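Task 17 of the worksheet. Students: predict the tertiary structure of the chain below and write it out as structure tokens. Keep your answer in the requested format; marks are given for formatting as well as content.
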Amino acid sequence: MRTTTADADSPRAARLSGAAAVVVSVGSILLATALSSTFTWPGSALSDLGVETGVAWLFNGGLLSGALLAAPYAWALYRVDTALAARVRAAAFAAAAVGMAGVGLFPLGHALHVPAAVAFFASATATLLADGAARRRTRRGRVALASGVLTPLAWPAWAAAGPGDGIAVPEFVGVVLFGAWVLALSPVRPLDAGP
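Model answer:
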């Protein structure tokens, strides 16, 4: 039997940790791109920042910090609803946080880097799709579902456009859609105390 816990039952600190995770991780990515002497959006991967002298600490540290901040938010997602799709959403979110931590812990060139990156992007997409399935009758649920479809489509669209050899743009599309979900679409939106 499905039960729903009121949004207010999620401790405010756990909810706000989602916003903090987005600000820290996306902020560190953007700051590292701005400070990098070699990064270009069409010619680089975001992970190139994790091995570049001068910005690697910022990129990797931001991903690790963001992942740690995401842990309480994963718990808030788990508590909000007991339906299967909702529990899958919480588990996928937690897996995305672990993948993000892995990208920061295992920089480009390490044997575990690619599996961590794939785990992040696949789990972030799964989070959006599971949320869309769980809340398909709501506007936010349908937007989450559409975001889950658009995230992987950014990759072939970028390849078809052919503006460069890098993958930073489709990677960042996924990061932004996932971050936007946390801030504006999630059932435990950090900055919204309403349903």
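Marker's comment: The radius of gyration is 16 Å. The chain has one domain: 12-185.
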